[in-house]
């Protein structure tokens, strides 16, 4: 078995469930040592048991911005490097725009955008020393077109896409690629809850998706692995919809 230092080392935030877990699964399957970060320690523990010896976790709340430098320093000191960062952690809240409070808005911006900025800055310092790395941000269909009742989430994900392009231009000359995945409607527990209780919405989603079906979490995992691997060594600054054509559907 390879020593950990010979393998690529990845961090996946929000890796204990959903898309983050699917990304971690794909990484581990491809011999990448993967560190899951999330708030729920039990979820992380269960995820790592399923993933096996190429996964570990750190229970951490990404909203604690002042603790992020220490977190990344500790991971780098322990594993010697960080090759891949996947900024996947995020929260959402659904309410009419005029009912969204400043606190509601700020909490989602903090979790989904500001923490991504802080984590990426600290990880980039490690990657710059190595002159290589791949940073993958997770966006959403909410940034591709207007979806009602998710104003803060939309603002955060639109910010993620802009930040991806700006970071790619600044970091790519130093060997660090920065890309973004915009998932469409993926079959997860969260989407099942939202769509199964709302047949009209589910029909709307499927009718504007040319491929006529929800995506699988593994579709996002495969896209993230592609962007993390040398197969995409000449790709930077893109937003890749993985959505069955939803973003261009009519």
From TrEMBL:
Matching SUPFAM superfamilies: NAD(P)-binding Rossmann-fold domains (SSF51735)
GO MF terms, alphabetically ordered: oxidoreductase activity, acting on the CH-OH group of donors, NAD or NADP as acceptor
Highest taxon in the source lineage: Bacteria
Family the entry assigns: Belongs to the short-chain dehydrogenases/reductases (SDR) family.
Protein name: SDR family oxidoreductase
Organism the protein comes from: Pedobacter frigoris
